[in-house]
Predict the 3D structure of the following.
Amino acid sequence: MGALTLEALRKLREDKRQALSQRDAGKGCIEVIIGMGTCGIAAGAKETFAAMVDEISRLHLDNVVVKQTGCMGLCASEPSVEVAVPGMPGVVYGKVDAAIGRQIVNSHIVKGELVGEYLFDKPAADIMK
Amino acid sequence: MHASLCDQLADLVQNALEAGATRVTLRVEEAPARLDVVVGDNGCGMSEAVQARALDPFYSDGRKHRHRRMGLGLAFLKQMVEATGGGLNLQSVEGKGTDVCFWLDPRHVDMPPMGDWAATLTGMMAFPGDYELVVERRRGDAAYSIRRSELIEALGEIETATSLAMARDYVASQEEALMMRKGQGHGSTDT
């Protein structure tokens, strides 16, 4: 199979958008932010990012935004993942490998249940935004 | 040093964006005996004094982390380059931007694995903000180019996991085609 073209990508996205629009209408936007500074990368955050994107996509959740950011100042707890779900407290998880990332998607994002043993805190106070 | 070349490139691109760049260019050119990389940006650049210390693992400019006394990203790059018998050239002009140019010998026993190109390049597209990222990959006579703006235009946005997953599949298809095209008789590139 040859490389996908941008036109093919455009068509695929439109097809998926139509398929998902009925179900996700009215739902708030969920935000997942993954630390990707030197510390995060060295700890495996790229794999965490890939796993969470894959799991969210596999579950057809189209209202989840996934972003990368730099170091959050929690280097000893990398990979770190901040999750903000409307109606729930914003939290930061620490030591999130690919498997824990998938667990967070299924527990926190889908069921609204915090994954307590991996909860950390909020970004370090000395981080300048 | 970082576990893979892709990890190092992710670090360099993140550096560029954190320096306030609105345009970042990543060029990777593979040949049997040499792998060349250039990460260029139009960020804030570095003064000569900062540039002289940029490769020091115990130096950080303090702009983001006031109390931090470590800055390992470029130090990891220096370590990777030295370990593989390569070369590194850092060129920066304060107020204009920075070019990080390095080359590695892919035949060297300490050459790190390439890593996952599709996941890495997609992740580089997922930082917040309005920036352009241009990626140019060349392997012998075969090449492809990806622009963040083009992906956003095709997908509508590149923030949701759905769009990121589709972008990843798109990049993966470009990588697969690159590896399959006849070039200068490369062997398989491990991931």
